[in-house]
Amino acid sequence: MFAGTGSVTDYMFDKYDRFIINDEPLPADIPAEYAEVFAKLSEVKYEEQKKEQEILAETTRKDDLVTYLAHDLKTPLTSVIGYLTLLKDEPDISAEMRSRYTGIAVSKSERLEELINELFEITRYNIRHFELEKGKVNLSIMLEQILFEFGPMLSEKHLHFDSDIAPDIDVYIDVDKMERVIDNLIRNAVHYSYPDTEIKVRLSRNRETDQDESNDNIILQVINKGKTIPGEKLDRIFEQFYRVDSSRSSSTGGSGLGLAIAKQLVEAHGGSISAESENEEIRFTV
Asked: CA-CA distance, 267 to 140, in Å (whole number)?
Protein backbone atom coordinates (compact mmCIF):
# COMPACT_ATOMS: atom_id res chain seq x y z
CA MET A 1 0.00 0.00 0.00
CA PHE A 2 2.87 2.38 0.80
CA ALA A 3 5.42 1.16 -1.75
CA GLY A 4 6.90 3.93 -3.92
CA THR A 5 5.00 6.72 -2.13
CA GLY A 6 7.92 8.47 -0.39
CA SER A 7 8.89 8.12 3.25
CA VAL A 8 6.54 6.38 5.64
CA THR A 9 6.89 9.24 8.12
CA ASP A 10 5.80 11.79 5.51
CA TYR A 11 2.72 9.73 4.77
CA MET A 12 1.95 9.19 8.42
CA PHE A 13 2.05 12.87 9.29
CA ASP A 14 0.22 13.92 6.13
CA LYS A 15 -2.72 11.71 7.10
CA TYR A 16 -2.33 11.28 10.85
CA ASP A 17 -0.42 14.36 11.98
CA ARG A 18 -2.55 14.58 15.13
CA PHE A 19 -1.70 11.04 16.21
CA ILE A 20 1.12 10.15 18.57
CA ILE A 21 2.09 7.05 20.48
CA ASN A 22 3.07 7.46 24.13
CA ASP A 23 3.18 11.23 23.52
CA GLU A 24 6.18 10.86 21.21
CA PRO A 25 6.37 11.28 17.42
CA LEU A 26 6.33 8.09 15.40
CA PRO A 27 9.83 6.75 14.68
CA ALA A 28 11.19 7.70 11.28
CA ASP A 29 12.29 4.19 10.34
CA ILE A 30 8.94 2.35 10.55
CA PRO A 31 8.94 -0.54 8.07
CA ALA A 32 6.35 0.06 5.38
CA GLU A 33 4.48 -3.15 6.25
CA TYR A 34 3.89 -1.84 9.79
CA ALA A 35 2.93 1.71 8.91
CA GLU A 36 -0.79 1.05 8.77
CA VAL A 37 -0.66 -0.79 12.11
CA PHE A 38 1.09 2.17 13.74
CA ALA A 39 -1.48 4.50 12.22
CA LYS A 40 -4.33 2.45 13.67
CA LEU A 41 -2.67 2.32 17.08
CA SER A 42 -2.21 6.06 16.98
CA GLU A 43 -5.84 6.57 16.07
CA VAL A 44 -6.95 4.35 18.96
CA LYS A 45 -4.73 6.31 21.36
CA TYR A 46 -6.14 9.61 20.09
CA GLU A 47 -9.69 8.39 20.69
CA GLU A 48 -8.75 7.19 24.18
CA GLN A 49 -7.23 10.56 25.01
CA LYS A 50 -10.34 12.31 23.72
CA LYS A 51 -12.60 10.13 25.90
CA GLU A 52 -10.38 10.73 28.92
CA GLN A 53 -10.70 14.48 28.41
CA GLU A 54 -14.49 14.20 28.11
CA ILE A 55 -14.68 12.10 31.29
CA LEU A 56 -12.46 14.59 33.13
CA ALA A 57 -14.64 17.52 32.02
CA GLU A 58 -17.81 15.65 33.01
CA THR A 59 -16.35 14.72 36.39
CA THR A 60 -15.35 18.33 37.00
CA ARG A 61 -18.86 19.55 36.19
CA LYS A 62 -20.31 16.87 38.44
CA ASP A 63 -18.02 17.75 41.36
CA ASP A 64 -18.78 21.46 40.96
CA LEU A 65 -22.50 20.77 40.90
CA VAL A 66 -22.37 18.59 44.02
CA THR A 67 -20.53 21.40 45.79
CA TYR A 68 -23.08 24.00 44.70
CA LEU A 69 -26.05 21.80 45.61
CA ALA A 70 -24.57 20.99 49.00
CA HIS A 71 -24.19 24.72 49.60
CA ASP A 72 -27.73 25.41 48.35
CA LEU A 73 -29.12 22.91 50.85
CA LYS A 74 -28.30 25.35 53.66
CA THR A 75 -30.68 28.06 52.44
CA PRO A 76 -34.01 26.21 52.65
CA LEU A 77 -32.85 24.27 55.71
CA THR A 78 -32.08 27.52 57.54
CA SER A 79 -35.53 28.87 56.64
CA VAL A 80 -37.29 25.71 57.82
CA ILE A 81 -35.47 25.77 61.16
CA GLY A 82 -36.08 29.49 61.55
CA TYR A 83 -39.84 29.43 60.97
CA LEU A 84 -40.36 26.28 63.02
CA THR A 85 -38.42 27.93 65.84
CA LEU A 86 -40.71 30.96 65.65
CA LEU A 87 -43.76 28.70 65.87
CA LYS A 88 -42.26 26.95 68.89
CA ASP A 89 -41.13 30.07 70.73
CA GLU A 90 -44.20 32.22 70.03
CA PRO A 91 -47.26 30.12 70.95
CA ASP A 92 -49.52 33.19 71.11
CA ILE A 93 -49.03 34.43 67.53
CA SER A 94 -52.17 34.92 65.46
CA ALA A 95 -53.67 32.13 63.40
CA GLU A 96 -52.90 34.14 60.28
CA MET A 97 -49.19 34.41 61.09
CA ARG A 98 -49.05 30.77 62.18
CA SER A 99 -50.55 29.76 58.85
CA ARG A 100 -48.09 31.96 56.99
CA TYR A 101 -45.06 30.59 58.84
CA THR A 102 -46.25 27.02 58.34
CA GLY A 103 -46.75 27.60 54.62
CA ILE A 104 -43.25 29.00 54.20
CA ALA A 105 -41.74 26.10 56.16
CA VAL A 106 -43.59 23.59 53.97
CA SER A 107 -42.49 25.37 50.78
CA LYS A 108 -38.86 25.44 51.88
CA SER A 109 -39.07 21.78 52.92
CA GLU A 110 -40.28 20.89 49.42
CA ARG A 111 -37.34 22.77 47.92
CA LEU A 112 -35.03 20.92 50.29
CA GLU A 113 -36.50 17.64 49.09
CA GLU A 114 -35.87 18.63 45.46
CA LEU A 115 -32.22 19.39 46.16
CA ILE A 116 -31.73 16.12 48.05
CA ASN A 117 -33.33 14.20 45.17
CA GLU A 118 -30.93 15.91 42.78
CA LEU A 119 -27.98 14.81 44.88
CA PHE A 120 -29.27 11.22 44.79
CA GLU A 121 -29.78 11.59 41.04
CA ILE A 122 -26.17 12.57 40.56
CA THR A 123 -24.66 9.91 42.79
CA ARG A 124 -26.92 6.95 41.98
CA TYR A 125 -28.19 7.25 38.42
CA ASN A 126 -25.99 6.05 35.60
CA ILE A 127 -27.81 6.89 32.39
CA ARG A 128 -25.51 4.70 30.32
CA HIS A 129 -26.72 1.47 31.92
CA PHE A 130 -30.39 0.60 31.93
CA GLU A 131 -32.75 -1.93 30.39
CA LEU A 132 -36.06 -1.16 28.71
CA GLU A 133 -39.17 -3.05 29.80
CA LYS A 134 -41.51 -2.35 26.92
CA GLY A 135 -45.24 -2.76 26.69
CA LYS A 136 -48.08 -1.41 24.59
CA VAL A 137 -49.65 1.78 25.91
CA ASN A 138 -52.00 4.50 24.74
CA LEU A 139 -49.60 7.43 24.69
CA SER A 140 -52.43 9.94 24.20
CA ILE A 141 -54.10 9.01 27.48
CA MET A 142 -50.75 8.74 29.26
CA LEU A 143 -49.79 12.26 28.17
CA GLU A 144 -53.15 13.71 29.23
CA GLN A 145 -52.74 12.13 32.67
CA ILE A 146 -49.23 13.57 33.07
CA LEU A 147 -50.44 17.05 32.12
CA PHE A 148 -53.29 16.79 34.62
CA GLU A 149 -50.83 15.97 37.41
CA PHE A 150 -48.90 19.17 36.65
CA GLY A 151 -51.99 21.29 37.39
CA PRO A 152 -50.93 22.48 40.86
CA MET A 153 -47.43 23.43 39.67
CA LEU A 154 -48.84 25.41 36.75
CA SER A 155 -51.29 27.20 39.02
CA GLU A 156 -48.46 28.19 41.34
CA LYS A 157 -46.46 29.61 38.41
CA HIS A 158 -49.53 31.26 36.78
CA LEU A 159 -49.11 29.14 33.65
CA HIS A 160 -51.51 27.03 31.62
CA PHE A 161 -51.36 24.28 29.02
CA ASP A 162 -52.43 24.60 25.39
CA SER A 163 -52.60 20.93 24.42
CA ASP A 164 -53.28 19.35 21.04
CA ILE A 165 -53.12 15.58 21.53
CA ALA A 166 -54.09 13.23 18.73
CA PRO A 167 -56.32 10.45 20.13
CA ASP A 168 -55.51 6.77 20.45
CA ILE A 169 -51.81 6.78 19.63
CA ASP A 170 -50.65 3.34 20.74
CA VAL A 171 -46.93 2.80 21.15
CA TYR A 172 -44.61 0.05 22.35
CA ILE A 173 -42.44 1.68 25.02
CA ASP A 174 -41.06 1.42 28.52
CA VAL A 175 -43.85 3.36 30.23
CA ASP A 176 -41.87 4.39 33.32
CA LYS A 177 -38.90 5.68 31.34
CA MET A 178 -40.97 7.49 28.74
CA GLU A 179 -43.01 9.05 31.54
CA ARG A 180 -39.72 10.32 32.91
CA VAL A 181 -38.86 11.87 29.53
CA ILE A 182 -42.19 13.70 29.37
CA ASP A 183 -41.96 14.76 33.01
CA ASN A 184 -38.48 16.20 32.47
CA LEU A 185 -39.57 18.16 29.39
CA ILE A 186 -42.69 19.58 31.06
CA ARG A 187 -40.82 20.41 34.25
CA ASN A 188 -38.12 22.16 32.24
CA ALA A 189 -40.78 24.20 30.41
CA VAL A 190 -42.43 25.19 33.68
CA HIS A 191 -39.15 26.29 35.24
CA TYR A 192 -38.10 28.47 32.30
CA SER A 193 -41.44 29.95 31.19
CA TYR A 194 -42.35 33.58 31.56
CA PRO A 195 -45.17 34.12 34.09
CA ASP A 196 -48.73 34.19 32.75
CA THR A 197 -47.87 32.35 29.54
CA GLU A 198 -48.93 29.05 28.00
CA ILE A 199 -47.01 25.84 27.47
CA LYS A 200 -47.95 24.18 24.21
CA VAL A 201 -47.95 20.38 24.14
CA ARG A 202 -48.42 18.65 20.79
CA LEU A 203 -48.69 14.91 20.11
CA SER A 204 -49.20 13.72 16.54
CA ARG A 205 -48.66 10.80 14.22
CA ASN A 206 -46.78 11.20 10.95
CA ARG A 207 -47.53 8.09 8.95
CA GLU A 208 -45.27 7.56 5.97
CA THR A 209 -47.60 4.98 4.45
CA ASP A 210 -51.25 4.19 5.04
CA GLN A 211 -50.65 0.46 5.32
CA ASP A 212 -47.52 -0.06 7.42
CA GLU A 213 -47.81 1.21 10.99
CA SER A 214 -44.14 0.33 11.57
CA ASN A 215 -43.28 3.41 9.49
CA ASP A 216 -45.12 5.73 11.87
CA ASN A 217 -43.28 8.64 13.38
CA ILE A 218 -44.78 9.70 16.69
CA ILE A 219 -43.95 13.37 17.30
CA LEU A 220 -44.13 15.03 20.72
CA GLN A 221 -43.44 18.75 21.06
CA VAL A 222 -43.23 20.88 24.19
CA ILE A 223 -43.09 24.63 23.51
CA ASN A 224 -42.86 27.44 26.01
CA LYS A 225 -42.31 31.19 26.06
CA GLY A 226 -39.09 32.09 27.79
CA LYS A 227 -35.71 33.71 27.41
CA THR A 228 -34.14 32.72 24.09
CA ILE A 229 -31.35 30.18 24.54
CA PRO A 230 -28.17 31.24 22.67
CA GLY A 231 -26.91 28.87 20.02
CA GLU A 232 -23.71 27.96 21.87
CA LYS A 233 -25.74 26.92 24.93
CA LEU A 234 -28.37 25.17 22.84
CA ASP A 235 -25.66 22.93 21.39
CA ARG A 236 -24.77 21.73 24.91
CA ILE A 237 -28.23 21.51 26.40
CA PHE A 238 -28.30 17.69 26.42
CA GLU A 239 -24.91 17.33 28.12
CA GLN A 240 -24.79 15.83 31.60
CA PHE A 241 -24.64 18.38 34.42
CA TYR A 242 -25.00 21.31 32.01
CA ARG A 243 -27.35 24.08 33.07
CA VAL A 244 -28.48 26.80 30.68
CA ASP A 245 -28.87 29.15 33.61
CA SER A 246 -25.43 29.19 35.19
CA SER A 247 -26.68 31.20 38.16
CA ARG A 248 -26.39 29.00 41.23
CA SER A 249 -28.82 31.18 43.17
CA SER A 250 -31.79 30.16 41.04
CA SER A 251 -34.46 28.43 43.08
CA THR A 252 -35.65 26.59 40.00
CA GLY A 253 -32.33 25.41 38.61
CA GLY A 254 -32.00 21.64 38.40
CA SER A 255 -29.01 19.36 38.44
CA GLY A 256 -28.54 19.51 34.69
CA LEU A 257 -29.29 15.80 34.35
CA GLY A 258 -32.92 15.96 33.27
CA LEU A 259 -32.40 16.66 29.57
CA ALA A 260 -29.35 14.37 29.35
CA ILE A 261 -31.43 11.55 30.80
CA ALA A 262 -34.30 12.34 28.43
CA LYS A 263 -31.96 12.15 25.44
CA GLN A 264 -30.54 8.78 26.48
CA LEU A 265 -33.99 7.29 27.11
CA VAL A 266 -35.44 8.59 23.84
CA GLU A 267 -32.50 7.26 21.84
CA ALA A 268 -32.77 3.90 23.62
CA HIS A 269 -36.30 3.70 22.18
CA GLY A 270 -34.94 4.34 18.67
CA GLY A 271 -36.04 7.95 18.66
CA SER A 272 -34.42 11.36 18.63
CA ILE A 273 -34.76 14.59 20.59
CA SER A 274 -33.85 18.11 19.55
CA ALA A 275 -34.11 21.66 20.88
CA GLU A 276 -34.70 24.97 19.13
CA SER A 277 -34.96 28.48 20.50
CA GLU A 278 -35.65 31.82 18.88
CA ASN A 279 -37.83 34.88 19.40
CA GLU A 280 -38.28 34.05 23.11
CA GLU A 281 -39.66 30.60 22.35
CA ILE A 282 -38.14 27.26 23.37
CA ARG A 283 -39.19 24.11 21.51
CA PHE A 284 -38.29 20.51 22.29
CA THR A 285 -39.20 17.86 19.74
CA VAL A 286 -39.18 14.11 20.38
From this structure: 20
Q: What angle do CA 49, 37, 55 make, to 5 degrees?
A: 10
- Decide if 61 contacts 242 (C-beta within 8 A): yes
Over the stretch 182-225, which tens digit does the pLDDT of each residue have? 988 998 899 889 999 999 999 999 865 455 555 578 999 999 99
The Cα–Cα gap between 260 and 240 comes to 5
Q: What ranges in the chain are assigned the alpha helix state H? A: 8-15, 32-72, 74-89, 95-124, 139-149, 151-157, 175-191, 231-234, 258-268
Task: Provide Rg for the chain, Cα atoms.
Answer: 26
pLDDT per residue as tens digits for the range 25-63: 555 566 767 777 777 888 888 888 888 887 777 677 667
CA distance 8 to 26: 10
Distance CA 110, CA 272 (A): 33
* pTM of the entire predicted model: 0.59
